[in-house]
């Protein structure tokens, strides 16, 4: 269940009134691309980034005037042109190979930095592109609209490399600025980098993912800035009593050790619950109960006499935040969100103001 009104509030709150490019790749962190883009528009966000052409095309349908940035190198120049997408420019090789196709398109120069998944790794190559463009006749020039990088260490608070990559980037940026070229879009910071440093000077946009979706990039941040709009719950299919000697689950993985009541719950790792999540508790009627076994479609929870068959079992919610379990070692926030299987889980949107208009 997703509370749309809360989703919109969280998007506004977590971006702190700054200009944002919302990262909506992987079906908007599995919240749903169409749902998320329309909610982000309502939150005042008009720029979007994804890795996929299909997603970019869907975003264009919903947001005819938005800036849509393709973060992966693309070769489908026809679709880029037809839809006015902005694209990454990842290397000198790419530039010279596709120079003709790039004419008239909006590109953002990509700096590799320490993350180094893609992009230029030195200033002189970046300057070469700018200079090469400047001497071309206007009608064959591309528009160097932006410059960007991605940090690989901003989320790693116990590592020093973030300071190194941040300095590399800021030094690169100031060297590039000496060319006199002005960029409409300068964006580098993900959720963790923004939480650590605020928006860097001279940067036009943040490029946020997880914070917009209501998870703190690290646990010392205030929950109030990152309210979680999603609740994940499942029904109980059966209540059973086990004797102390009885085992239950594959390989007899759970043995209560005392006479116990258990709830068999209709959710499992096949629905995308990370296995590590089952080492912790769930919530029924506001009370915590230990999860004892996780199977593909079921979960065993040790309960008491207060629990009845009609009760709902909450795995994630405003009192069971995804980021709290991430902090306990249950994967990463985006890993749990991305794993949720909406072919088997039912997604229900509540508090959707559009429905009542
Ligand atoms: C290139 C790029 N920018 C920004 C983000 C957003 O990061 P976060 O979800 O940590 O805010 C991602 C996420 O993976 C990314 O790949």
TrEMBL record:
<dbReference type="InterPro" id="IPR009006">
    <property type="entry name" value="Ala_racemase/Decarboxylase_C"/>
</dbReference>
<dbReference type="Pfam" id="PF01168">
    <property type="entry name" value="Ala_racemase_N"/>
</dbReference>
<keyword id="KW-0663">Pyridoxal phosphate</keyword>
<feature type="domain" description="Alanine racemase C-terminal">
    <location>
        <begin position="229"/>
        <end position="350"/>
    </location>
</feature>
<dbReference type="InterPro" id="IPR011079">
    <property type="entry name" value="Ala_racemase_C"/>
</dbReference>
<dbReference type="Pfam" id="PF00842">
    <property type="entry name" value="Ala_racemase_C"/>
</dbReference>
<dbReference type="InterPro" id="IPR029066">
    <property type="entry name" value="PLP-binding_barrel"/>
</dbReference>
<dbReference type="InterPro" id="IPR001608">
    <property type="entry name" value="Ala_racemase_N"/>
</dbReference>
<keyword id="KW-0413">Isomerase</keyword>
<dbReference type="InterPro" id="IPR000821">
    <property type="entry name" value="Ala_racemase"/>
</dbReference>
<protein>
    <submittedName>
        <fullName>Alanine racemase</fullName>
    </submittedName>
</protein>
């Amino acid at each position: 269940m997703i509370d749309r009104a809360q989703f919109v509030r969280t998007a506004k709150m977590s971006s702190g009134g700054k200009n944002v490019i919302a990262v909506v790749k992987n079906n908007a962190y599995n919240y749903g691309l169409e749902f998320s883009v329309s909610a982000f528009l309502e939150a005042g966000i008009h720029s979007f980034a994804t890795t996929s052409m299909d997603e970019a095309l869907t975003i264009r349908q919903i947001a005819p005037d938005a800036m849509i940035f393709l973060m992966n190198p693309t070769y489908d120049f026809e679709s880029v042109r037809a839809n006015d997408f902005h694209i990454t420019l990842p290397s000198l090789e790419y530039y010279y190979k596709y120079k003709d196709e790039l004419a008239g398109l909006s590109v953002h120069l990509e700096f590799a930095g320490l993350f180094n998944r893609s992009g230029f790794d030195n200033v002189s190559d970046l300057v070469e592109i700018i200079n090469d463009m400047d001497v071309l006749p206007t009608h064959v020039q591309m528009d160097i609209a932006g410059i960007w990088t991605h940090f690989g260490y901003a989320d790693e608070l116990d590592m020093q490399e973030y300071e190194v990559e941040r300095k590399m980037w800021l030094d690169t940026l100031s060297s590039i600025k000496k060319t006199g070229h002005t960029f409409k879009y300068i964006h580098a910071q993900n959720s963790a980098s923004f939480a650590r440093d605020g928006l860097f000077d001279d940067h036009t946009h943040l490029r946020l993912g997880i914070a917009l979706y209501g998870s703190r990039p690290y646990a010392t941040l205030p929950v109030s800035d990152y309210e979680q709009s999603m609740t994940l719950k499942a029904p109980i299919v059966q209540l059973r009593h086990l004797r102390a000697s009885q085992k239950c689950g594959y390989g007899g993985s759970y043995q209560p050790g005392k006479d116990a009541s258990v709830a068999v719950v209709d959710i499992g790792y096949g629905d995308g619950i990370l296995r590590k999540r089952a080492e912790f508790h769930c919530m029924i009627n506001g009370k915590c109960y230990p999860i004892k076994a996780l199977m593909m479609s079921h979960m065993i929870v040790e309960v008491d006499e207060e629990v009845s068959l009609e009760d709902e079992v909450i795995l994630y919610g405003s009192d069971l935040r995804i980021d709290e379990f991430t902090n306990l070692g249950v994967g990463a926030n985006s890993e749990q969100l991305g794993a949720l299987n909406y072919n088997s889980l039912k997604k229900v949107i509540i508090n959707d103001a559009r429905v009542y208009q």
